[in-house]
Amino acid sequence: MRLTLTLILVSIFLRVGASNKVLEIGLFWGEEPSEITVQTGEGSYSVLGNGKELIQLKGGTILRVNNVNGLLHIRTLSEDLGTYYSLEINRNVWGSSLKIQRTGHKSTHEFHDNFSIKPYRGKLRIINEVYIEHYVAGVVESEAGSREPKEYYKVQSVICRTYALNNRRRHEAEGFQLCDKVHCQVYHRRSLSNPDIVKGTQETIGIVIVDSDIDLVNAAFHSNCGGYTCNSEDVWSGKLEYLRARVDENCLEENHSYWRYATTKSKWFDYLSVKHGYPVYEEEAAQEALQYCPDERDHFLNENGARVPFKQIRYDLGLLSAYFTIDHVQDSIILEGHGYGHGVGLCQEGAMNMAKQGESYADILHYYYKNVHLVNLSVIDFFRAN
Ligand SMILES: [Zn+2]
Ligand SMILES: [Zn+2]
């Protein structure tokens, strides 16, 4: 009986869990190249044209692929391998990686696992079929840099994994799951710069954030909240119970905790009246537009009157955040701001500081996301399958 139950659980995990393990990432999204060269970084690869093996790729062999009249023309330095409508480059051994260089670009981009290449509007559609933990490590490096403590990389790994799985239908119509740009999550290459990034990913392997319904959360994050995070509905339309405003003193001394913006009184009043119909001729409203210093994060200038959203002012003037005070000296207006980004969810610089002070990744995630659970993907699969 017990054996049967174990087998059922294992088969559920394998059936449902398998779909969580490989992601299809559209590389160079929006700037697809028409010609690339590839060679192995580590391990070796089999190259298949229209499903048939063409060549083994190892050592210093360089393969050139370009789009010629809607087909893929493939050659090595010494041999023309012909034209095909599809190309697969599959690893022979675990841990293999491939270096891709776009013609005309100096940098090479190295990625783990498998690749599929198809012609696309005169260019190349390159899809990296990558083991999720390899992808997560690459994203963490792009999003968090290489100088943070390992505990912070664990925080960012859980967030990036949750985000990836929650958004994996985003590019379905284009034939892959996520792009490699900020539109989804930035994924420049496999992680190579700091071994702690890969360790942070491995030590949280499979862990994601879910809400009380065991649904993956929207794991929003931003650079620096300036001392107060925001409710989701203050910035976006929907209210999410786990994205609640809170005081955060962990980020106040950090790089992005303070900014300054200066303009003239006439430009400021013109902007407010033309764009927002702000009653600059009414003394009380005019006074608030000249001097405004809230005790905590507010969301509207002239709360009981014109109600101009600070997030709109941020957008219009290109400010780093929607959290600032207003002051004036003669004809100059000075906005003094706190933080960088939308302010919803996890504050990266605050979380980095908490990690440096010895807080665990779980405590940091629970600090910024309210009443969430950290679970392994296999647990979600189990509940889904039942
Ligand atoms: Zn995208
Ligand atoms: Zn913060």
Distance, first to last CA: 18 Å
Strand arrangement, largest sheet? 4-3-8-11-12-1-13
What is the 3D form? elongated
Percentage of β-strand residues: 25-35%
Q: What's the number of domains? A: 3
* Count of helical stretches: 11
Could you give the count of β-strands? 22
What Rg is obtained from the alpha carbons, in whole angstroms? 25 Å
Which compounds are bound in this model? zinc ion
Percent in helix: 25-40%
Sheet of most strands = 7 strands, mixed
Secondary structural class = alpha+beta
Average per-residue pLDDT, rounded, comes to 92
Report low-confidence residues grouped into runs of 5 or more. Answer: 1-18
Question: How would you portray this structure in words?
Answer:
With 386 residues, this protein is α+β, with helices and mostly antiparallel strands. It has three domains: 33-120, no CATH class; 173-250 and 347-385, no CATH class; 258-338, no CATH class. Helix content is 29%, strand content 29%. It has helices spanning 2-17, 132-144, 150-166, 195-202, 232-235, 265-276, 283-290, 310-317, 348-356, 361-368, 377-385; strands at 22-27, 35-42, 45-49, 52-57, 63-68, 71-76, 80-84, 87-91, 97-102, 108-112, 114-120, 123-131, 178-179, 207-210, 221-222, 258-264, 300-301, 308-309, 324-329, 332-338, 346-347, 373-376. The strands form six sheets. Strands 4-3-8-11-12-1-13 form a seven-stranded mixed beta sheet. α3 crosses α4. The longest helix is centred in the middle third of the chain and has 17 residues, at 150-166. The protein is elongated and about 80 Å long. The two termini are 18 Å apart. The site of one zinc ion has 7 residues, from loops.
